[in-house]
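Chain particulars:
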Amino acid sequence: MLFALTKPAPLTEQVRSRDGCIYLYRAMRFIGWRPPKSGMLRYVYLTWTVLTFMWCTTYLPLGFLGSYITEIKHFSPGEFLTSLQVCINAYGSSVKVAITYSQLWRLVKAKDILDKLDLRCTSLEEREKIHLVVARANHAFLIFTIVYCGYAGSTYLSSVLNGHPPWQLYNPFIDWHDGVLKLWTASTLEYIVMSGAVLQDQLSDTYPLIYTLILRTHLDILRERISSLRTDPAMTEDENYEALVKCVIDHKQILDYCALIRPVISGTIFTQFLLCGLVLGLTLINVFFFSDLWTGIASFLFVITALLQTFPFCYTCNLIMDDCEALSHALFQSNWIDSGSRYQSTLLYFLHNVQQPIVFIAGGIFPISMSSNISVAKFAFSVITITKQMNIADKFKSE
């Protein structure tokens, strides 16, 4: 079945939490981020890695700059805003890609911790939750792919049909003004470069969501285990104590998992927060004042793309904080009243640790949450308000 991983696998199959990253790591391998470990093929693959970074990460932002230096007089207001909104995002994307690629070992190592957590998932209910989150994570990546590719494809077609390249990157070898064939050639080359950059950007935007979706599932499984502590009358006090200790170890492994992925997430989300409001503001100005039907559709898809870069992950971070609170409530309300002193002292230690919420910090400055995301997005409306009050759009149109 096509995209079989987006559907929960039957419980007769063995599924691991790391399988939720399958589509993510396939895309990484395609773009040149996951070379073979040894052999001649490794060096051939590294050549592909260098090419993708050279064209998609380095040339793309410089291509916008070169275009503004040489072709700024030929831009219409709508074309300039379409180019500028992507240009700003391209510089941010290059920074995010550099952070993600340099810290990729953390994401790979985090999957080993997931394997350890999976060893405890033996009941049908727990395995079912793993199957569900694997399907949900791969499904999320597929949705991101459709939206991101839809933006690149719609911009490409709408721009060429309007008689100009989609992003008008600097190209000293092909003059797109010189006939329809060269227009299509230059536009197609831009589309190829942009598609690679869009995929790199997508990887930097989707891994936080995928990894935290899996995190939430293991927090939920741990909460269920805590709620069932000392509820089996057939278990002795020593066995109950051992079950509590295993829950403590599970929680520690979850914290180790968060500690591994936190530095990567901090850098990429902080970069995106810096650019989100400005990019959204420029895009909405383009939609409201300068777009026709087709460029408006492309710009609208870009707005959705920009929102996907932060909104789902920020919402998930809020849910994780709620999960941590539910975890502490489950522990406090568990059946510990008539337990022994050893059990209670361990429970108090565990309760103290569980009450510390799992929080991800953007750039080590402010917590990643919906309130932070809304505050950043508000800047887009400030940009639109300034544009309307100063009649900047009318001045561009008259000129």
About this structure: Strands lie at 361-362, 366-367.
